[in-house]
Amino acid sequence: MTGSDEQMHAFTVQIRREDDVWMADCPALVACTTYGATYDEAVENIRDAIRVTLDDMRDNGEAIPPNDAPPSTIAVAVGA
Fold first, then answer.
1. pLDDT at residue number 2
2. What is the torsion angle, in degrees rounded to the nearest 10, for the CA atoms of residue 42, residue 46, residue 48 and residue 54?
3. For residues 69 and 12, is the Cβ–Cβ distance under 8 A?
4. Distance separating alpha carbons of residues 10 and 51, to the nearest angstrom
5. Distance (Å, whole) CA 32 – CA 44
6. pLDDT category, 4, cuts 50, 70, 90?
7. Which of 24, 54, 67, 72 has the lowest CB atom count within 10 Å?
8. What is the CATH number of the domain that holds 44?
9. Angle, CA of 66, 36 and 29, to the nearest 5°
10. Rounded to the nearest 5°, which phi and psi values hold at 60?
């Protein structure tokens, strides 16, 4: 799909620093995870990963999840 036929989707993406890379994942899309050497590269890579995941889902006749709401964030204290 390209041009005016392309439907826009908005998904929550979580990005975090792990060791020497930036990890990015889209919780609404199972196994849609990637990384980048920089924050911007991780954002670009997760955008591509979401696009590929949605294309695969369409090709396999799977339903595209609805645009999701922002996640709730809580603090959890864990003793060492």
1. 45
2. 180
3. yes
4. 11
5. 13
6. very low
7. 72
8. 3.30.160
9. 20
10. -95, 5
Task: Report the SS3 class of residue 23.
Answer: strand
Query: Tens digits of per-residue pLDDT, 10-67?
Result: 888 999 999 999 999 999 998 899 999 999 999 999 999 999 999 999 999 999 988 7
State phi, psi for 47 to the nearest 5 degrees: -60, -45
- Amino acid type, 14: Q
Type of residue found at 77: A
Length of the chain: 80
Q: Is residue 22 part of a domain?
A: yes
Strands (E) located in the chain:
14-18, 21-25, 33-36
Would the pTM of this model clear 0.90, i.e. be above it?
A: no
In a domain, 69, yes or no: no
* Domain count across the chain: 1
